[in-house]
Amino acid sequence: MRTRLPPALRDRDFARLWTSSLANGLASQMVAVAIGWQVYAIHRDPLDLGLVGLAEFVPLPLLALPAGQIADRVSRRTVSAVSVLLTLVTVAVLLAITIDGAHALWPFLAVGATAGVASAVGSPATRALTPEIVPAELLASAVALRSVASQIGIVAGPALGGVIFAVEPIAVYAAAVALLVVALGAIVVLPRRAAPLVGQPPPDWDSLVAGVRFILRTRTLLGAISLDLVAVLLGDSIALAPVFARTILHAGPIGLGALRTAPSLGALAAGLLLARRPLPTRAGPTLLVVVGTFGAAMIVFGLSKSLPLSLGALALSGFVDMISVNIRATTLALVTPIELQGRVNAVEWVFIGASNELGAFESGAVASLIGAVPAVVLGGGLMMTVAATWPRLFPALSRLGRLEELQPA
Questions:
Q1: Residues with Cβ < 8 Å from 104, sequence gap 6 or more?
Q2: 27 versus 365: which is more confidently predicted?
Q3: Rounded to whole angstroms, how far apart are CA atoms 372 and 46?
Q4: Contact between 16 and 80 (Cβ < 8 Å)
Q5: DSSP state of 9
Q6: Does 196 reside within a domain?
Q7: 33 half-sphere exposure, CB direction, 13 A CA radius
Q8: So what's the pLDDT on residue 64?
Q9: What is the mean predicted confidence (pLDDT) over 288-311?
Q10: Is the pLDDT of residue 160 over 60?
Q11: For the residues of 211-226, what is the DSSP string, one character each?
Q12: Does 297 fall in a domain?
């Protein structure tokens, strides 16, 4: 049975890291469904959903550069374990809030900010663990498997979260606590490795911003990361799923769970394909095509009044988004020297957080002004426009060849 696994997953340390990512992703997505339903139920205002996303994002730009330094100077296993522990504490607090009745918005904003701190500090170290553990020839497959672990959790998490929440809201948070204990244990048993910069002199300004400078001078990497930021900031409207589930598709909490699961089903399918067979086409043109396709899928989702059609559009968006994520993450892992992995991943995580959390805020704000359907359709159209114009700003990105040809910069 072990020989049937992808080569990267046969490595015991990477398998433990993979297990931690799976459990963490499953818990996070279960909690996301519960929070979305509870927050929207307080005032029935989509702006509240955006405010939660904003609260999660604010710590990220403030802590990104210090977190990158920590990831390159302190054991990455230790930093990751502390992050998971803090996430576990936030979910325990959400459990207490739910028991008390969950009638106010501010506790969710406070918990969101705390979760943002955990993510900002832990994500650079956790992401840098993959190239630290896995040899270069298996890195593309390992990056795909890392995304597969997340997507398996996302596929099962919203569906389970919706069903469990419909029966007993408290049980969602109790189950998430148990899963996070598993995630923490899988990280703790990893062997402790010395950080690349351990024992080096205290960081100066040049060291602090080294990740930023590396991305700015590596135009292909800058183009890929900024494309994801701009496109998803404008076009990804999954944060409005509670609005569509409740007022447009009339699908209830189970339908909300299905809507949040659909993109991950598509992403999981793409991730499994990429884990077995790396991207066979040129990465640059493929990236532009899949971003444009994502925008088109969002337009279909926004206009749909049919649950099956909405699910299909979201599944397509997840499939092409996984291809985009794999191209960006593999490019970063292959071209970044190991001693810069923490700082470069920290900067990339700001871009990812901006596209996700600020994207959620943007979606909620625009929907509150012009309505959910026009907001989603407008965002999808803008996303397609960005994909069409990006080669003019980053011609090196459109010329990017096959991923296996990349070398450290």
A1: 42
A2: 27
A3: 9
A4: no
A5: G
A6: no
A7: 36
A8: 84
A9: 90
A10: yes
A11: HHHHHHH-HHHHHHHH
A12: yes
